[in-house]
Amino acid sequence: EVQLVESGGVVVQPGGSLRLSCAASGFTFDDYTMHWVRQAPGKGLEWVALINWDGSSTYYADSVKGRFTISRVNIKNSLYLQMNSLRTEDTAFYYCAKGSFAYYYMDVWGKGTTVTVSS
Amino acid sequence: DIQMTQSPSSLSASVGDRVTITCRASQGISNYLAWYQQKPGKVPKLLIYTASTLQSGVPSRFSGSGSGTDFTLTISSLQPEDVATYYCQKYNSAPLTFGGGTKVEIK
Q1: For B3-56, what is each residue's pLDDT tens digit?
Q2: Starting from the edge strand earliest in sequence, which strands make up the sheet with A78-83, in order?
Q3: Which residues in B have their CB inside 8 Å of a CB on A?
Q4: In 10 A of CB A62, how many CB atoms?
Q5: Which of A36, A21, A10, A28 is nearest to B94 (CA)?
Q6: CB distance A19 to A67 below 8 Å
Q7: CB contacts < 8 Å between A and B, how many?
Q8: Distance CA B74, CA A69 (A)
Q9: CA distances (Å), origin A14, targets A7, A43, A49, A87, B3
Q10: DSSP 8-state code for residue A10
Q11: Which stretches within chain B are classed as H helix?
Q12: Total Cβ atoms within 10 A of residue B86
């Protein structure tokens, strides 16, 4: 069974840093693009970042560019999101999602982890 | 960047009704369009990709159509378990923008 399990969500002060992790299982991790998607309380989905199969290409939403870094360690079947200079508007539920084999849509989603940025 | 606009933002329909949701891209995206369903308190689920291909396991009452800038998601006969918010997403290139969502309720 394909499974994605996020961790690392906590309460952090504005300006702080945080690293989210996503543990993948049930599929050949290094065959697939991976994504982070977030959802602020009561709001819609916002794509955050993607990383290709070997980490050589990454893309970011304008809202997080220069502050967040997506990375992966294929030998550990793990995806990460380093979040720096956090703002209150980064408060959201963060989902890890698996891309399809050849395209960028997301065919499996984790259950998510909550990040709260508050003083 | 390409913007994705969904309409309506919410709708209420009776069980058995045909429901149509529209998604419009500000520029052409060919058929690189996916639809997701998010039930209350649940994780988003992929319904349709390449504008009209049903993901495995999705009921056949769901269908998608369109190409270029205009797309539709249709539920042929609304069921109580279809209460959810539906999102379109373009994925031809980054940024992978989602539409604002359409909340579907039972009348």
Answers
A1: 999 999 999 999 999 999 999 999 999 999 999 999 999 999 999 999 999 999
A2: A3-7, A18-25, A78-83, A68-73
A3: 1, 32, 34, 36, 38, 43-46, 49-50, 55, 85, 87, 89, 91-101
A4: 8
A5: A36
A6: no
A7: 62
A8: 37
A9: 20, 21, 21, 5, 29
A10: -
A11: none
A12: 25
Nearest to A46 among B36, B92, B98 (CB): B98
Per-residue confidence in pLDDT tens, chain A, 119 aa = 999 999 999 999 999 999 999 999 999 999 999 999 999 999 999 999 999 999 999 999 999 999 999 999 999 999 999 999 999 999 999 999 999 987 889 999 999 999 999 99
Is the pLDDT reported for residue B66 higher than 90? yes
Distances (CA, A) of B72 to A15, A57, A94, B57: 41, 32, 27, 20
Q: Tell me which residue has tokens 């690392």.
A: A8
Between vectors from CA A4 to CA B95 and to CA A17, what angle results, nearest 5°?
Answer: 65
- The conformational region for residue B25 under phi > 0 = left, psi -120 to 50 = alpha, else beta, is beta
Report helix, strand or coil for B42.
Answer: coil
CA-nearest of A65, A89, A46 to B99 is A46
User: Which residues have CB under 8 Å from A118's CB, separation 6+?
Assistant: A11, A13, A14, A88, A91
